[in-house]
Amino acid sequence: MIALGCDHGGYNLMVAIKKYLDEKNIAYKDFGTDSEASVDYPVYAYKVATEVAGGGCELGILCCGTGIGISMAANKVKGIRAAVVNNEFGAEMTRRHNHANILCMGGRVITEEQAVKFTDIFLNTPEEGGRHDNRVAMITAIENGEFEP
Ligand code: RB5
Prior knowledge:
Layout: E1 2-6, H1 11-23, E2 28-30, H2 41-53, E3 59-64, H3 68-74, E4 82-84, H4 88-96, E5 102-106, H5 112-123, H6 131-143
Parallel strand pairs: 1-2, 1-3, 3-5, 4-5
The chain binds D-ribose.
The site of D-ribose (RB5) has 8 residues, from helix 3.
């Protein structure tokens, strides 16, 4: 199950992403927004991030104008690793190496076609273990105030 959220700046991308998920029969929970009317991106970041952190959804996708503000807000929720992605390599590597659990994109930065492509890569790339597990564990330790470099 994928958790989806966007503000008005990312609404165009989210329409295209939902069409892709429908075509692939991939289940999702849509936390809005549902139009191009101006809203506050932290609201949608919080809804999706708490859903993913709580285990209700395995992964999330968030879109705003740049992908940046909505990722900053999502990353304030414990257990969230939200990554802004602007190219195919990033979409792959943030799953493989960073174990990102939320993909963030910007409707004023990339095209709808790119957003669908990056979503496809993100959802179909596995996490690599070994040294990457150790590094992600360090991120978690920083988050928990337990990191000793
Ligand atoms: C909204 O105008 C815009 O600030 C928002 O979508 C996002 O780009 C913030 O990072």
